[in-house]
Amino acid sequence: MRMLAVADVHSPRFLDPFLRSLEQFSPPDLFLMAGDMINRGRATEFRVILDAIHDSLGNDFQIVACYGNEEYSEVRNDISAAIGRDMVFLDETMTVVEVDGQKVGIVGTQGSLDKPTNWQRQHLPSVRRTFELRAHRAGSLLKKLRNKVDRRILLMHYSPCLETCQGEDSRTFGWLGSRKFYNLIMSEQPDLVIHGHVHNSVNHEAHIGETLVRNVAMPAVGTLTQLSF
Ligand SMILES: [Fe+2]
Ligand SMILES: [Fe+2]
């Protein structure tokens, strides 16, 4: 199975490199988006992104996404209206995709931060608890998929480890990701973790135990990330 993955296009901010990058690849079996595809809640930009993908790669593959912090919760209905049935969002949920007889289970979540931002602390009084629960739920979903699928993918926006944050100030890891996810990945060992959010990483790949972790943020990687099982 061949996959293309991307995050942090922040359309229209990094739309041009995204469009150029689309031209460099052939149609995948699965297209994954790890959040922040639009800038500051501009829901209609999703239509621009989907039209570009279909124009370049056709529509003979599923598109699966998780939310990023720029897909504001108050515009998610508008996002649903913009995307129609052309893609599916996983928000602390899972799906199973089957390609050539291979079953791939995908768990999607925005992920957690060890240090909620000032905005999150002011506007979401229970944000610390929310972040704890997110890690717990992602772990439960991965566990449910164990022995039921051939491969398991965790698709998340925030980072689960320091290694793919190299290039950012290491003191900011609490604002980039959460050790809670590191711990659940270490115990559950999915085949692949895809994340975004880290715009300035210089190292896009790491391992947590046997699990491959890839940061697919467009501003960091500069292109779509191609992966295969
Ligand atoms: Fe971002
Ligand atoms: Fe982000």
Order of helices and strands: EHEHEHEEEHHEHHEEEHE
Structural category: alpha/beta
Biggest sheet strand line-up: 5-6-7-8-10-9
User: Ranges with pLDDT <50 over ≥5 residues?
Assistant: none
Keywords:
single chain; 229 residues; binds fe (ii) ion; 8 helices; five-stranded mixed β-sheet; Purple Acid Phosphatase, chain A, domain 2; 11 strands; alpha/beta; 31% helix; six-stranded mixed β-sheet
Short description:
With 229 residues, this protein is α/β, with parallel strands linked by helices. Helices cover 31% and strands 23% of the residues.
Describe the structure.
- By secondary structure, the protein is of the alpha/beta class.
- It has one domain: 4-Layer Sandwich (Purple Acid Phosphatase, chain A, domain 2), CATH 3.60.21.
- Helix content is 31%, strand content 23%.
- The chain has helices at residues 15-22, 45-57, 76-83, 118-123, 127-145, 173-176, 179-188, 218-221, and strands at residues 2-6, 30-33, 62-65, 88-89, 93-99, 102-109, 151-156, 192-195, 205-208, 211-215, 225-228.
- The strands form two sheets. A six-stranded mixed beta sheet has the order 5-6-7-8-10-9. A five-stranded mixed beta sheet has the order 4-3-2-1-11, with no helix packed on it.
- The protein is globular.
- The relative contact order is 0.19.
- The structure holds fe (ii) ion (2 copies).
